[in-house]
Every structure is written in C-alpha cells, then in structure tokens.
C-alpha cells in the first residue's frame, strides 16, 4: 500500500509541475502582451502623435465653432452689395470709424482690425473726405465678379483705368454683404 501511495504521489507531482508551467507561461504572455498594449496605447511615438493630433483637432473644432458663431452674430451690412457700400460711405461721412470698420468681413487674419486702424489714421490726417469722394464714384464691375458670393465695385479714372476696387463678399451665416477689401 505504501508503494501505491508513492506512485500516486509521483503522478500528482508531474501534473502540478505541468500546471505551474502552463500558468506561469500564460502569466508571462499576459504581462508581455499587456506591456505591449500599454506601450502602443500610451507611450509609443505614434500614441503621442495621435494624442497631439486629437488635441489639435479639438482646438480647431472649437476655433471653427467660435468663428461661425461670430459670423452668425455679425449683422453689420446690407442685403445687397450696393446697400453695404452705401452704409459704409455714410459711416465714413459721419466719421464713425468704429461703425465703418464693422462693414468689413470677419476673417482669420484680423484684417478688420487693420482696416479700422487704417481708417483712424486717415481720419487723423483729414483724408476721410477724400476716401468718401473716391468710393462714392464706384460702379459695379461685372467683369471682375467671380461668383454669386463675390461682388466688385471699381473706380476708374477718365482713361478707364481702375484706380480703386471695393470687393464685397456674401456672409452666408447672417445673409449680409461685407467688404472684403478696399
């Protein structure tokens, strides 16, 4: 009987060793696989680049939302290009630079602010009347129109040479015409 007990114990011992080996091996595979997963997800250059792109995308989407909101809230301008141009001229005649600058389109390069400063400088130099006189002579330049959202007024000298242009762009977000360049 003692002999049979020893044989059973010898059989049990290799089974225990076998299962220890299997579980140990699986444990190592899980640790290595988990480490690889964590590396790929969080620490690899690709993961860092992916997170940076996601942040940039979110920042861009936030900027775009603010920009579109600003366009929707921008109500200074007319329903026609002629109306916007006339409103701009009237503001300049009253020397209301702040109002006149609001007829310029909101853009990403902040040109509206540059135009406001330019008009302020012209006002200080007493040149607003000259600007008004020139712009008041502007006529539609149908040959320069690119599409239905773009309109151009030109001022020509006595020889028919263009001496000034006023470009207007349609703001679809608020359904008004804005000056894009002068």
Write the layout of secondary structure elements.
Blueprint lengths: L1 H42 L1 H29 L7 H13 L3 H5 L9 H14 L3 H9 L2 E2 L9 E7 L5 E10 L4 E6 L1
Antiparallel strand pairs: 1-2, 2-3, 3-4
β-strand amount:
5-15%
Task: Label the structural class.
Answer: alpha+beta
- What name is given to the CATH topology of the largest domain? Nuclear Transport Factor 2, Chain: A
Distance between the termini: 111 Å
As for the number of domains, it is: 2
Q: What helical percentage do the residues reach?
A: 55-70%
Major pleated sheet: 4 strands, antiparallel
Mean pLDDT equals 83
Write structural notes for this entry.
- The chain has 182 residues and is of the alpha+beta class.
- The chain has 2 domains: 2-72; 77-181, Nuclear Transport Factor 2, Chain: A (Roll).
- Helices cover 62% and strands 14% of the residues.
- The chain is built from 6 helices and 4 strands; from the N terminus they run ααααααββββ.
- A 4-stranded antiparallel beta sheet has the order 1-2-3-4, with helices on one face.
- α1 (2-43) packs across α2.
- It is rod-shaped and about 110 Å long.
Tags for this entry?
Nuclear Transport Factor 2, Chain: A; 182 residues; alpha+beta; 6 helices; 2 domains; single chain; four-stranded antiparallel beta sheet
Provide a compact summary of the structure.
The chain has 182 residues and is of the alpha+beta class. The chain has helices at residues 2-43, 45-73, 81-93, 97-101, 111-124, 128-136; strands at residues 139-140, 150-156, 162-171, 176-181.
